[in-house]
Amino acid sequence: MKKTACKIYAFVDPSINHSGNPCYVTRESSFAFPSITSCSISTEKISQSSQGYSLECKQNDTAIQCCGHGMLSAAYCIKNQIFTSENSTDTANATNSNRKNLQLYLSMSNCVSNVTLDEEIIWLEFGEIVCDFQDPPIWLKQLDLPNQPLRYAQTAADNGYCVVQFDDNIDLKRLNAPKETIGQFTQRAIIYTSQSSSDKNTVFFRYFAPQYGNPEDTATGSAIRILANFWKIKHQRVTLKQLSPNGGLLFAERKNKTIRVGGICRWDGNYYEE
Fold first, then answer.
1. Which residues touch 88 (CB under 8 Å, ≥6 apart)?
2. Domains held by the chain: number
3. Residues 233-267 pLDDT 10s
4. Which domain holds residue 63?
């Protein structure tokens, strides 16, 4: 039997060509492409009485504990029933009339999420990750930054995340990406961030994890769990623009004790065989 996958771009910015983070979504657990994330959807629902699915994401044959763009891509495929009619030319629109009301539950390793649909935006719900504000560590000098950061915060886990905030007039695109050697000083993924000077509900960021073979991520849904805490995001919707080379567009808002992370997906319309 041929192993089939479709290529989904998650957290697409409609104003930028070729934006979004690519992910191959499949129903085959052993399916994988080099360099690009692959997300397999279990053929068995978690519960037959609910729309629950178990997911597994890998990149370069390494499992990812919580992959935001993988979960968003999988949710897109499930909601649009892409794997139920692979010979249809209009599969992506097959359930457009009723998918808005579809409730979905996804589980990936220790990361779980309810999924809802708001017009074109797919929303994932995550638990918030608290970060602790501290004085900038000495190792930040290794990043060769042109300006002193305004604030620095990090999560509790040594292999978690750290956030470095810059002044609003700093163009994050012009900052050099951390080198792999930064792993000698920290095992935390590094997030650069700033706030729009003209719109306080718009945040910019970049995400780096060279210690784990990811020099810079294109669009990182899981990072919003930390940025929501860092920027004290409330119930209003906040736009987060990821200034990676291809670019990503994400949305965030608080819902009770969870953080909703939203994004738009696009399918290239093709099926791929391993």
1. 94
2. 2
3. 987 899 999 999 999 999 999 988 899 999 999 99
4. 4-123+264-273
Tokens (6 digits) for 92: 């992506």
3, HSE (Cβ side, Cα atoms, 13 Å): 14
CATH code where residue 91 lies: 3.10.310.10
Could you tell me which residues are beta bridge partners of residue 260? 125, 253
Provide the 10 A C-beta neighbour count for residue 13: 19
HEC readout, the chain: CCCEEEEEEECCCCCCCCCCEEEEEECCCCCCCCCCEEEEEEEEECCCCCCEEEEEEEECCEEECCCHHHHHHHHHHHHCCCCCCCCCCCHHHCCCCCHHHCCEEEEECCEEEEEEEECCEEEEEEECCCCEEECCCHHHHHHCCCCCCCEEEECCCCCCEEEEECCCCCCHHHCCCCCHHHHHCCCCEEEEEEECCCCCCEEEEEEEEHHHCECCCCCCHHHHHHHHHHCCCCCCCEEEEECCCCCEEEEEEEECCEEEEEECCEEEEEEEEC
pLDDT tens-digit profile of 113-170? 999 988 889 999 999 999 999 999 999 999 989 888 999 999 999 999 999 999 998 9
Instruction: List all residues 6 or more positions away from 122 whose beta carbon is below 8 Å from its beta carbon.
Output: 72, 75, 76, 79, 115, 116, 262, 263, 264, 265
Q: Do residues 18 and 113 both lie within one domain?
A: yes
Matching residue, tokens 């099926």:
271
